[in-house]
């Protein structure tokens, strides 16, 4: 046969066009795009189906160690299965340096975990202890080895760094050519609120949202944009949750800054009211920043349509509800401060965005492809291999039935978590088959590929994240500091 695989008669969707074509795959790459292609050793009929680039999910906590009594519910084997079940073919997860730890050691450990991935993967490096020694002695080689993005937290006890440290990491990102991604919430305000809430006995899941109202995120979003401006460093702000934070992003972009922003499905379909469910069900909706309002959801869709927010990731961060003894893993009726932040979202990201976005007419198909695959691949230096359907690109595609109606239930998601906050949500449109480099990983909910099919994706230097060369003073402060 001329090709290893031919996907016939599909409607192809990319970030710029929708057209009818066959796809010919050879050696894991797209070798031909035309109608009436020659024979494939394997033939798939995609009549009446959409054939879309596999999703690129650039914010996923998979098999990430954490302190305390709970752990991340997914391994790379299960997390990558879940991603593929939802049409995603590439993930960027986090290699996390704890305080006093070597970043290089943590990256090496994460490489070991990644070997069981079924889909392709890359790493962001979480820096919680940016000592001058780590920055000068460990970081350059790690970036050079292809880990071209850094994450910092400005809140969370045990993870957050100070503004002075953040400036040092930003400077390092600029010098080494790595994109700095930031969790932006004002830590001391959250702490002040939290102490007051606990003192008042207000400890329910819904009080999680009270402890971190939008102002803590709006202020910090403004602050990190200003820090990025001061040192002329491109950044991505993680999980923008609503209108006021999106306004800060847009303001920075209008100033000409290279500030990119991400949001997540939870901010588009859930609200703070979900925390107020009966019993302890609200605990399944504790994530940070907290869910907001319907008006915030509308503002986020608008920001997506106007290109202010170009990346929609899952922020997959699963914790089991039930512990090994059948009781709540984090304690019955635990105060909100004891519930690990984060929800699972790898499998549901694309179906929810397709249904709420494309099927409901909020965004077109090209925009859906852009925010789930093409933009994140470009932003993190994974293009042209990932994020689009083009000759020479990896044959990472998902065949979608745009009409299929599915009621989301946990067992469909192929993750190792015991619940989803989207249980019972009805969606229209579902990925029926997901291919990574021409190999089917999931078909009709059946997992076909073994752990280990995935490949690590080192990222080469790329122009998109080059600094502008513009400082607010007639002086470059970054090149003066030792690195
Ligand atoms: O609540 C969340 N988002 N948990 C995951 C860690 C983070 O902040 O991204
Ligand atoms: Zn490495
Ligand atoms: Zn975060
Ligand atoms: Zn996260």
TrEMBL record:
Transmembrane segments: none annotated. Its cofactor is Zn(2+). Residues 50-439 form the Amidohydrolase-related domain. SUPFAM superfamilies: Composite domain of metallo-dependent hydrolases, Metallo-dependent hydrolases. The keyword Transcription regulation does not apply. The keyword Metal-binding applies. One of its GO terms (molecular function) is dihydropyrimidinase activity. Its EC number is 3.5.2.2. Gene3D superfamilies: Metal-dependent hydrolases, Urease, subunit C, domain 1. Keywords: Hydrolase, Metal-binding. Belongs to the metallo-dependent hydrolases superfamily. Hydantoinase/dihydropyrimidinase family. This is Dihydropyrimidinase. It comes from Plastoroseomonas hellenica. The gene is hydA.
């Amino acid at each position: 046969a001329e090709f290893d695989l031919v996907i016939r008669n599909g409607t192809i969707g990319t970030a710029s066009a929708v057209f009818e074509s066959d796809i010919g795959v050879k050696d894991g790459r797209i070798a031909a795009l035309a109608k009436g292609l020659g024979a494939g050793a394997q033939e798939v009929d995609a009549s009446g189906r959409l054939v879309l680039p596999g999703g690129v999910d650039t914010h996923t906590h998979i098999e990430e160690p954490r302190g305390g009594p709970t752990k991340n519910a997914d391994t790379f084997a299960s997390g990558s299965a879940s991603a593929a079940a939802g049409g995603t073919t590439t993930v960027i997860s986090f290699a996390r340096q704890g305080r006093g730890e070597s970043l290089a050691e943590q990256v090496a450990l994460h490489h070991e975990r990644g070997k069981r991935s079924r889909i392709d993967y890359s790493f962001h490096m979480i820096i919680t202890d940016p000592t001058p020694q780590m920055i000068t002695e460990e970081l350059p080689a790690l970036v050079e080895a292809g880990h071209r993005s850094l994450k910092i937290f400005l809140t969370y006890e045990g993870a957050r760094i100070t503004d002075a440290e953040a400036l040092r990491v930003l400077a390092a990102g600029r010098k080494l050519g790595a994109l700095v991604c930031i969790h932006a919430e004002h830590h001391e305000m959250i702490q002040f609120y939290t102490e007051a809430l606990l003192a008042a006995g207000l400890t329910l899941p819904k009080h999680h949202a009270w402890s971190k109202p939008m102002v803590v995120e709006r202020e910090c979003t403004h602050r990190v944009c200003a820090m990025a401006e001061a040192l002329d460093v491109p950044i991505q702000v993680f999980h923008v949750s609503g209108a006021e934070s999106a306004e800060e992003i847009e303001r920075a972009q209008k100033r000409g800054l290279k500030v990119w922003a991400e949001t997540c499905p939870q901010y588009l379909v859930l609200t703070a009211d979900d925390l107020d469910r009966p019993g302890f069900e609200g605990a399944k909706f504790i994530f940070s920043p907290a869910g907001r309002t319907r008006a915030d959801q509308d503002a986020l869709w608008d920001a997506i349509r106007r290109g202010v927010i170009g990346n929609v990731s899952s922020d997959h961060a699963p914790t089991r509800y039930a512990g090994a003894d059948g009781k709540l893993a984090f304690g019955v009726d635990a105060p909100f401060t004891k519930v690990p932040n984060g929800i699972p979202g790898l499998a549901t990201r694309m179906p929810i965005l397709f249904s709420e976005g494309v099927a409901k007419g909020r965004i077109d198909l090209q925009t859906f492809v852009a925010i789930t695959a093409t933009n994140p691949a470009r932003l993190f230096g994974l293009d042209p291999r990932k994020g689009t359907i083009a000759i020479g690109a990896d044959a990472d595609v998902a065949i979608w039935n745009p009409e299929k109606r599915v009621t989301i239930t946990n067992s469909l998601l192929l993750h190792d978590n015991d619940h989803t906050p989207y249980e019972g949500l009805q969606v229209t449109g579902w990925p029926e088959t997901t291919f990574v480099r021409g190999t089917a990983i999931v078909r009709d909910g059946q997992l076909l590929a073994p752990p280990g099919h995935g490949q690590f994706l080192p990222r080469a230097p790329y122009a998109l994240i080059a600094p502008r060369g513009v400082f607010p003073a007639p002086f470059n402060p970054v090149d003066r500091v030792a690195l």
